[in-house]
Amino acid sequence: MSVTPPTAPSFVLVRPQMGENIGAAARAMLNFGLEHMRIVAPRDGWPNPAAVAMASGAGRVLDAARVSPDLPDALADCSFVFATTARDRDLTKPVYTPEAAMELAAQKIAAGQRVAVLFGPERAGLENDDISRANAIVSVPVNPEFASLNLAQCVLLMGYEWMRQQGNFTPVVQEMAGTDWAQHSEIEHLAKHYEERMEDAGFFYPEHKAASMKTNLRNMWSRLPLTRADVQMLHGTLRQMVRWKERG
Predict the structure, then answer these.
(1) Name one GO biological process term (predicted).
(2) φ and ψ at 72, to 5 degrees?
């Protein structure tokens, strides 16, 4: 019987204490396309109505969650395990940032391995006995004076870093709002319009500085990332100011 190779890491909640946090973790997982939740010895038993209520649309993550009585059972089929912790531990292990950990997880999963990420209980996090079963530690760079993360926050952060490994995401997208970038000829016309009106208003003074002032003004227009809508508005603004001055 063939086993379907994993396509994402399993997120393992170790002895979670509140159903609400389990539900919030499920919601955070599904936000980033993760559906393999494992729950180890939940304090309030399973299933948990509070978890279902908090999941808010991510119920399928809870429905498919695998519940284990202890951590060795939950990790039995895993070949590489990360343990998330904010505290220093007296254990010799490599420590990864979330980004580096999920990059390694993606590599191992692509090679057909099953990867798990451990998250500790809300009160004190993972114990050394839990971490001793992991291959590596994930430590989030946070404020050392307030390093504790809520369970769902930690799940969300790891999920985000996992999704970043799944594709090329453009860091900045410019929304054009129904317009296009202005062409050079349109900006040239705008610059000439302003130069003429400012000449009429006596702006370019004293005369021996006029040439450099005009050059600086044109340089300013060329630096601005103007759209066609921007150019039209600036033309209209100047026309209205001239009309108002003439009426006065």
Answers:
(1) tRNA nucleoside ribose methylation
(2) -55, -40
Cα separation, 85 vs 137, in Å, equals: 7
Structure tokens at 231: 């150019």
Contacts of 172 (CB under 8 A, 6+ apart): none
Query: Is the pLDDT confidence value at 199 over 80?
Result: yes
Is-above-0.90 flag for pTM?
no
Quote the pLDDT of residue 144. Answer: 83
Q: What is the pLDDT of residues 10-50, one digit of tens each?
A: 999 999 999 999 999 999 999 999 999 999 999 999 999 99
Domains of the chain: 10-164 (3.40.1280.10), 184-247 (no CATH)
Q: Quote the CA–CA distance of 158 and 108 in Å, as a whole number.
A: 16
C-alpha to C-alpha distance for 101 and 187, rounded to whole angstroms: 48
Q: Are 41 and 195 in contact (CB under 8 A)?
A: no
The gap between the terminal CA atoms of the chain, to the nearest Å, is: 90
List the structure tokens of 191: 């610059």
The pLDDT value given to residue 243: 86
Q: What is the mean pLDDT of the chain?
A: 91
87 in Cβ contact with 125 (< 8 Å)? yes
CA 51 to chain centre: 24
Q: Report the DSSP beta bridge partners of residue 84.
A: 138
- For the chain, the farthest-separated pair of C-alpha atoms sits apart, in whole angstroms, at 90
Burial class (CB in 10 A: 0-12, 13-18, 19+), 137: buried
Helix axes 228-247, 184-200, angle to 10 degrees: 20
CB 226 within 8 A of CB 185: no
For the chain, how many residues are written? 248
